[in-house]
């Protein structure tokens, strides 16, 4: 199973990289851009046991996000699992 995890700062959390990009884009001719948030993209492959359910994979990925891949206090995360 291929997994894609997206981690971004929670709304209201200072995002200096996002603010810098937001200020720079108009100088490059890109107008009307606002609320830029910079995050992380993580790809991984799960080698689940034969017969493992989608729910088991979801629980495993969610636990990884909560314990290591994201800081749930200041970051939001979403993920997508592709079976195949």
Summarize the structure.
Helices cover 33% and strands 26% of the residues. The protein has helices spanning 16-27, 54-69, and strands at 2-9, 40-45, 75-82. A three-stranded antiparallel beta sheet has the order 2-1-3, covered by helices on one side.
Could you name the key traits of this structure?
84 residues; three-stranded antiparallel beta sheet; elongated; alpha+beta
Structure explained in plain terms:
It contains two helices and three strands; from the N terminus they run βαβαβ. The chain has 84 residues and is α+β, with helices and mostly antiparallel strands. A three-stranded antiparallel sheet has the order 2-1-3, covered by helices on one side. The mean pLDDT is 95.
